[in-house]
């Protein structure tokens, strides 16, 4: 080999002529492949970049399909467990995949790690991390809020830290930042396939990876070295042309797309951005767009590798990954004539800034029409609070552009008219904006810099300025604005927009202010118009990493002790769910017939309930408490069909369980949209539920129900929803012959003795039917391990 290297580095034409012969004789792989094999996926990992394997797999698949491939297809299909034999049909076949890594945030990691412990396995099989970001409540400011959270949640943090050490999972301590920003800064890379136990995991698509939100049981599969299953997604192409200018930001791209596709238009599909406009968006801007793609139900979103990603990789200390990715652009970009199932075209040059909401992220309002819409719909025009940051919009560029607006306002003697909260996405962003004076500028404006955590975006907000039920408006740069999402007040009208518009609207204090044309009055009485926001895409001095908040697991964690106290009200070891008894599910009582939108927030509320995410029985007391009962239009008030008395939903379910009464739930369209929280599936199962019957499901929630042994069923005829009355009995028949693609017979028995027969569809495959029969996917895993 030494002789070979001397020849390769020699001078002269003869060396160039015989180069390929030398390579073939001296190397078992090409120099390109050898270089890739030496570059680790991250500075925390020893596992190399998978480009060699992905390229080989892709060659197999492309030869089989005989057509051009989209970028998302390249990444997905190159991660197939069996590229030679896997059936591949968009929207139909179930893919068995081998993701490169797993990421879990602290609220969902508790249940994921409890399930992994139940599996009996000694160590995770793929690089995995836990990120403490969800349990920090915003009260007064970053330092004090963080200290309070560490004290209140010490039992949970200790559990996650020791579980990580024992089972080989990296641990990001509280204060490190939001999971998706940590992933972007440290772990994401072009061509990555990652699953994360949070619905906004697609954030990593801004760096060219396929990052997909899942429930904890899916994470357990991957950590247990079991191929991960995903229904082969369709691909929605979004072609971007033109260039962002003025007040228009990357956020406006996804706000516009949400208005086009709605909250369910992306279900079962990957959204793939392409076209010349892509190169005019920063890497963190692309991450913003992918992050909020969760709000249209998309499996994930992704951008092709380009110079903006390369610059970000280098700025975050990953020059070697950037150099390697540059050599694999054929893998990291779509083919020229790749076919899309749907194509949307957006001209960035003419795209108008948007403000979406209230109560749903797909109600798209161009800024020029927002004031008119507010008056027409009686939305409160006076804004009470402005909030910027979160996992969606907390990059250095975002903060810098807001600071440019703030500096101009301050130069005219103006500050924010309302409370203005700032959430840095990570310790690295916080430290860098502190060093560069951006944080001081925002404080001078009247802003409060909160902890590096999710905070108000997920309802971790101890809001004091309004009473519950008081109608009011807030504007945020977050991604989600369901009823009560941020402050548990159903009367709060939340609008999501870019951080730049939040800042401008906070200066005016009114929803009908349009910074593109309206003027402000300075302290001197003179009128002025805000200039277009501007900022550096990346810090010229480089990023300041701030405090070291990462804890790497030991090479051998077998002696680490993980304690779960039997008297804890925060943590609870899991008991296996009961197996199916082999009989039809007859005369099921309807716990609740839900009317209208029913997100995972409605099924399992967040906010103050987050502290019980590791204790299934305690958190089950929040089940369906904000879902609307179709019988009376009320929240958390259902009739006990045994006693005839009305009571809270969780208490009624517990009464049924104690009496041996099996029950089901009937729901509307896009049931389970929103968060990836599997508690929305675990709680109904724990309290005696057997089936969820709806018009349609959101992807992650449907999978979570399957994993826990529930039957997720959809009306073959959506109008049959209206045939069901809350006091009916439901029978699911012929379950012994349950098979993929075969509808389930359903008998509806009315109180007057009459009956209706309808058909219910399902998307269960053979493996998932075995989960149902075993009682859960985890039960089935144990059966397989024991040879059953």
Can you walk through the features of this model?
It catalyses: citrate = D-threo-isocitrate. This is Aconitate hydratase, mitochondrial. One of its GO terms (cellular component) is mitochondrion. 32% of the residues lie in helices and 17% in strands. The chain is α/β, with parallel strands linked by helices and 788 residues long. Strands 13-12-18-17-14-15-16 form a seven-stranded mixed β-sheet, with helices on both faces. A seven-stranded mixed beta barrel has the order 22-25-26-27-30-29-28. Strand 29 (744-749) and strand 30 form a beta hairpin. Helix 12 (250-261) runs parallel beside helix 13 (283-292), helix 18 (396-411) packs across helix 20 and helix 27 (766-774) packs across helix 28. The radius of gyration is 26 Å and the shape is globular.
Q: Rg, please?
A: 26 Å
User: Biggest sheet, in brief?
Assistant: 7 strands, mixed
Strand order of the largest sheet: 13-12-18-17-14-15-16
Helical content band: 25-40%
Number of helices: 28
Q: How many angstroms does the end-to-end distance come to?
A: 51 Å
How confident is the prediction overall: mean pLDDT? Answer: 94
> How does the overall form come out from the CA principal axes?
globular
What structural class do helix, strand and pairing data support? alpha/beta
Report the uncertain regions.
1-28
Query: Got a strand count?
Result: 30
């Amino acid at each position: 080999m030494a002789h070979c290297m001397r020849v390769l580095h020699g001078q002269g034409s003869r060396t160039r002529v015989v180069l390929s012969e030398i390579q073939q004789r001296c190397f078992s792989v090409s120099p390109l492949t050898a270089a890739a094999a030496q570059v680790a996926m991250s500075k925390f990992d020893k596992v190399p970049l998978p480009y060699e394997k992905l390229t080989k797999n892709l060659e197999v698949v492309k030869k089989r399909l005989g057509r051009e491939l989209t970028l998302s297809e390249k990444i997905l299909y190159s991660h197939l467990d069996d590229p030679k034999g896997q059936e591949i049909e968009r929207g139909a076949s179930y893919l068995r995949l081998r993701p490169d890594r797993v990421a879990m945030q602290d609220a969902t990691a508790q249940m994921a790690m409890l399930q992994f412990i139940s599996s009996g396995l000694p160590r995770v099989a793929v690089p995995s991390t836990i990120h403490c970001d969800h349990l920090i409540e915003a009260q007064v400011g970053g330092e004090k809020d963080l200290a309070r959270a560490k004290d209140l949640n010490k039992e949970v943090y200790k559990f996650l830290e020791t579980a990580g050490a024992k089972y080989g999972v990296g641990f990001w301590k509280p204060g490190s930042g939001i999971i998706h920003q940590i992933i972007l800064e440290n772990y994401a890379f072009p061509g990555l396939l990652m699953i994360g136990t949070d619905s906004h995991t697609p954030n990593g698509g801004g760096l060219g990876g396929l990052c997909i939100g899942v429930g904890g049981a899916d994470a357990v599969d991957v950590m247990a070295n079991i191929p991960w299953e995903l229904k082969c997604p369709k691909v929605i192409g979004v072609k971007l042309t033109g260039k962002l200018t003025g007040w228009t930001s990357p956020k406006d791209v996804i706000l516009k797309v949400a208005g086009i596709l709605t909250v369910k238009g992306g279900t079962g599909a990957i959204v793939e951005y392409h076209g010349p406009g892509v190169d005019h968006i920063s890497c963190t801007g692309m991450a913003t767009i992918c992050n909020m793609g969760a709000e249209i139900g998309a499996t994930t979103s992704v951008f092709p590798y380009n110079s903006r990603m390369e610059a970000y990789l280098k700025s975050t200390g990953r020059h070697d990954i950037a150099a390697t990715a540059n050599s694999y652009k054929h893998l990291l970009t779509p083919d020229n004539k790749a076919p899309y199932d749907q194509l949307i075209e957006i001209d960035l040059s003419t795209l108008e800034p948007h403000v979406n909401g209230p109560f749903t992220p797909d109600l798209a309002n161009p800024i020029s029409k927002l004031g008119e819409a507010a008056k027409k719909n009686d939305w409160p025009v006076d804004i009470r609070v402005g909030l910027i940051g979160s996992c969606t919009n907390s990059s250095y560029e975002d903060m810098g552009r807001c600071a440019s607006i703030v500096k101009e306002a301050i130069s005219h003697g103006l500050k924010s008219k309302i409370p203005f909260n700032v959430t840095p996405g990570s310790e690295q962003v916080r430290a860098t904006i502190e060093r560069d004076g951006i944080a001081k500028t925002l404080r001078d404006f009247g802003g409060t810099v909160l902890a590096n955590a999710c905070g108000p975006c997920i309802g971790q907000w101890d809001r004091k300025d309004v009473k519950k039920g008081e109608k009011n408006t807030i504007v945020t740069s977050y991604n989600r604005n369901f009823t009560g999402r941020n402050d548990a007040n159903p009367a709060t009208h939340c609008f999501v927009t870019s951080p730049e518009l939040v800042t401008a609207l906070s200066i005016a204090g009114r929803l009908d202010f349009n910074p593109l044309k309206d003027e402000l009055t300075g302290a001197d009485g003179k009128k002025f118009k805000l200039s277009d926001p501007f900022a550096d895409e990346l810090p010229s001095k480089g990023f300041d990493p701030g405090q070291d908040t990462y804890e790497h697991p030991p090479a051998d964690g077998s002696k680490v002790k993980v304690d779960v106290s039997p008297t804890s009200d925060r943590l609870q070891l899991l008991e296996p769910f009961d197996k199916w008894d082999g009989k039809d599910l007859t005369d099921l009582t309807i716990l609740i017939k839900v009317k209208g939108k029913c997100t995972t927030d409605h099924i399992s509320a967040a906010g103050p309930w987050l502290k019980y995410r590791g204790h299934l029985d305690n958190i089950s007391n929040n089940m369906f408490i904000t879902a609307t009962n179709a019988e009376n239009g009320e929240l958390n008030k259902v009739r006990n069909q045994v006693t005839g008395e009305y009571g809270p939903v969780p208490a009624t379910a517990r009464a049924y369980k104690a009496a041996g009464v099996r029950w089901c739930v009937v729901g509307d369209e896009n049931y389970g949209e929103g968060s990836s929280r599997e508690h929305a599936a675990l709680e109904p199962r724990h309290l005696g539920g057997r089936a969820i019957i709806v018009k349609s499901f959101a992807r992650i929630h449907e999978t979570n129900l399957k994993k826990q042994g529930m039957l997720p069923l959809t009306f073959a005829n959506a109008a049959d929803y209206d045939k069901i009355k809350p006091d009916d009995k439901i029978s699911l028949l012929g379950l012994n012959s349950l098979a993929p693609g075969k509808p389930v017979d359903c008998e509806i028995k009315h109180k007057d003795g009459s009956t209706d027969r309808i058909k219910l569809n399902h998307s269960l495959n053979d493996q998932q039917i075995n989960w149902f029969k075993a009682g859960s996917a985890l039960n089935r895993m144990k059966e397989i391990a024991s040879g059953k």
